């Protein structure tokens, strides 16, 4: 059955586990309606807690309001809580100098994140399909993109999961018809003035007339590109994880990022450009081909003091020993402490992600010493809940294995973690104190023993958020 295929896909990509509370983004169209029905069919057997969320963009007047009414009625018929939101997309887009599509997307994503926060959901499910994957990759290729762009839509991006990526729109609509389930069609989806619609309605049909399996082939290519991205990320994270944040900037701009010039220059061009994409994303700048090419040339061959204008507020400058990016709007970011009282749950921390999952004895690796520095296992019964994730604080201490009390500052110094980067590292605590600083040290609390029966697995992921 289709729901079993979806659950199998979720399991293979670690998107959902039993007990997950999930917000489902439902527009009223066939894909999102199918997603809501499928996850509701899995509620009992897989112990999912499903919440429906609908954002009314108010762009199509009565038609938009009818979509919202349809989704409310659908959620009620499935006995699912329904959260709705609405804002003036036109006014927001105008105020922030965005296209209507970009403004709608920003407001919709903000609403979904706030809904997940309000309801305590671990993730947000959207109904992107194999068709959307093909459209996304083709759209990015036509606009110009790198390896990241070719990787398309990932199964998970931060809190967002995409359980339907292996399925086509045709499969979902056939299933809905067979079940007698209704959906609504958005009239704006056929408006060829929008670039994505033009690709969907005009370009892809022409391609498929000659290459019938084009969408499957593009999806396969995206998967291979994503695997390559994982390798590139591991090879560049030493550079991108050691970005210093300079609050003062250059006196004309509000802040700066500083990276070691030698470390950047030591990377071959494909890896250097991949690292710069990460840095540009942190700075709020799109990774265009021209920006990447000019920046790469400046780092390789530029004289000291050479500047590359990235946009009207962000500039890259080559220094003697460092490369600076001025004007990045990130220096004011503050992450407040986040409390975790139940599992599974996910915490986004800057551009990183922490996942917390309760596990059984059958899940525990045979040799816990072999797990990497970004994963840790605890005896859950030996911890005092709730847990919390927070910044390091002056005077922080933790008891490491062997019973040694260490200042967190000394652990940072021993590991050569730059002072400016320490505020970006999360600190995981229980009621009694620090239990883990990802990729640095774990405490002696909650050690797994042969007598342990309940386990907590925490994983610290790379650039997902």
Short account of what is shown:
The protein is α+β, with helices and mostly antiparallel strands and 465 residues long. The chain contains 15 helices and 22 strands.
Tags for this entry?
alpha+beta, Rossmann fold, Uridine Diphospho-n-acetylenolpyruvylglucosamine Reductase, domain 3, six-stranded mixed beta sheet, five-stranded antiparallel beta sheet, 15 helices, globular
Which regions have little confidence, pLDDT < 50, spanning 5+ residues? 329-334
According to CATH, what is the class of the largest domain? Alpha Beta
Radius of gyration: 24 Å
Helix content: 25-40%
- The CATH architecture of the largest domain can be given as 3-Layer(aba) Sandwich
Task: Specify the biggest β-sheet.
Answer: 6 strands, mixed
Shape: globular
Number of DSSP strand runs:
22
Number of domains: 3
């Amino acid at each position: 059955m289709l729901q079993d295929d979806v659950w199998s896909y979720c399991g293979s990509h670690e998107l959902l586990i039993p007990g997950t509370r999930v917000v489902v983004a439902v527009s009223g169209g066939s894909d999102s309606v199918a997603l809501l029905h499928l996850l509701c069919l899995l509620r009992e057997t897989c112990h999912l807690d499903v919440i429906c969320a609908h954002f009314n963009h108010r762009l199509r007047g009565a038609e938009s309001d009818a979509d919202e009414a349809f989704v409310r009625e659908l959620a009620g018929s499935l006995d699912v809580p329904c959260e709705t939101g609405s804002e003036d997309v036109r006014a927001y887009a105008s105020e922030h100098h965005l296209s209507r599509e970009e403004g709608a997307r920003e407001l919709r994503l903000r609403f979904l994140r706030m809904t997940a926060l309000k309801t305590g959901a671990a993730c947000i499910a959207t109904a992107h399909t194999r068709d959307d994957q093909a459209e996304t990759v083709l759209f990015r290729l036509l606009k110009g993109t790198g390896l990241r762009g070719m990787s398309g839509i990932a199964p998970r991006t931060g809190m967002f999961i995409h359980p339907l990526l292996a399925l086509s729109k045709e499969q979902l609509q056939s299933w809905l018809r067979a079940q007698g389930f209704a959906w609504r069609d958005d009239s704006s989806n056929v408006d060829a003035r929008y670039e994505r619609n033009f690709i969907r309605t005009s370009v892809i049909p022409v391609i498929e007339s000659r290459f019938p399996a084009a969408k499957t082939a593009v999806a396969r290519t995206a998967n291979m590109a994503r695997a390559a991205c994982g390798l590139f990320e591991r090879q560049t994270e030493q550079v991108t994880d050691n970005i210093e944040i300079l609050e003062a900037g250059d006196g004309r701009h509000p802040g700066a990022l500083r990276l070691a010039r030698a470390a950047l220059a030591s990377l071959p061009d494909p890896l250097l450009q991949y690292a710069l994409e990460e840095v540009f994303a942190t700075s709020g700048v799109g990774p265009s081909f021209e920006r990447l090419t000019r920046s790469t040339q400046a780092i390789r061959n530029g004289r000291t003091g050479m500047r590359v204008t990235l946009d009207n507020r962000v500039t890259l400058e080559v220094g003697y020993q460092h490369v600076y990016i001025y004007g990045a709007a990130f220096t004011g970011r503050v992450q407040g402490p986040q409390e975790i009282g139940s599992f599974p749950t996910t915490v986004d921390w800057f551009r990183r992600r922490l996942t917390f999952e309760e596990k059984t004895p059958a899940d525990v690796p045979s040799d816990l010493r072999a797990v990497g520095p970004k994963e840790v296992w605890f005896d859950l019964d030996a911890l005092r809940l709730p847990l919390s994730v927070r910044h390091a604080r002056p005077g922080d201490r933790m008891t490491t294995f062997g019973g040694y009390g260490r200042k967190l500052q000394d652990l940072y110094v021993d590991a050569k973690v730059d002072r400016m980067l320490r505020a970006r590292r999360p600190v995981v605590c229980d009621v009694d104190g620090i239990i883990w600083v990802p990729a640095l040290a774990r405490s002696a609390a909650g050690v797994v023993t042969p007598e342990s029966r309940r386990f907590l697995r925490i994983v610290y992921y790379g650039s997902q958020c």
